[in-house]
Structures are given as C-alpha cells and as structure tokens.
Amino acid sequence: MVEKIDHLGIAVKDLDEALKVWSDALGLELTGTEVVESDGVRVAFLQIGESRIELLEATSESSPVAKFIAKRGEGIHHLCVKVRDIDLAAAQVRERGLKTIDAAPRPGAHGARVMFVHPAATRGVLLELSQHE
Fold first, then answer.
1. Helix and strand numbers, DSSP H then E, in the chain
2. Domains of the chain with CATH codes
3. Residue 121 burial by CB count (10 A; 0-12/13-18/19+): exposed, middle or buried?
4. For residue 3, is pLDDT > 90?
5. Sheet holding 75-83, edge to edge
6. Which of 56, 72, 74, 84 has most Cβ atoms within 10 angstroms of its Cβ?
7. Is the model's pLDDT at 133 over the cut of 90?
C-alpha cells in the first residue's frame, strides 16, 4: 500500500520567517508555494532528496493548522506517505480498524488526492495518505 515517505508537514506561524531557516540557512531548495483553501493553509515546498518538507502557515484562525499551533506550538504537524491507489488505501485502513479524519479522499496540494488518518489510530502521529496524479 505505502510506496515511500512523501513529505513531512511542519506547522509554522510565519512562513517567510520559517523559510529563512529551512531554505536560506539550511540550503533546502524552495520548489514553490501554494494556498490550499480547503485546509486554510499557505504551503511552501522544500526538496530534500526524494522527499519534501512542507511548511504550513494558517490563513485563518479556524484552520486545523492554526488550532494545532494554538494547542501545541510550532513543529511537526504530520507525516505523509505516498500510496499507489488512495481509494484502496482508504478502504484498507478502515478495514483494519483505523479511524480516519476524512470520510473520503479529497483534493490536496499539487493536485494530489489525500486522506488523513486520525492520530489516535497511529499512536499520536497525524498520517496523511497521498496519491499523486
């Protein structure tokens, strides 16, 4: 079901300030930014080998990232794994008793289809399943 780690999502208060560390100081290549309206975030994509780091800045106080930062502070928000078939993966995680946040796969950044598995099901890790078109 899982092909590889796709990216690590990091919640930040200020995307431009975070880029000063991740891109400017550490030298990771910024490959683009995107606003994902459905999740209320502005995302910066940084390449690191075959994977990426995604910096997530809330665009509204009601976004899940804003709530995460208010509760836990800035830091690792989620781990995303790439899957070949998101519909099959969604069915398999539910069949295996894992609680999901999303009722069905939905659009994500970069034109991907995504679905989140609840952290209670994965020992505290918010897990994103992602299928790239």
1. 3, 8
2. 2-131 (3.10.180.10)
3. middle
4. yes
5. 29-36, 41-48, 51-58, 2-12, 75-83, 127-131, 113-117, 106-107
6. 56
7. no
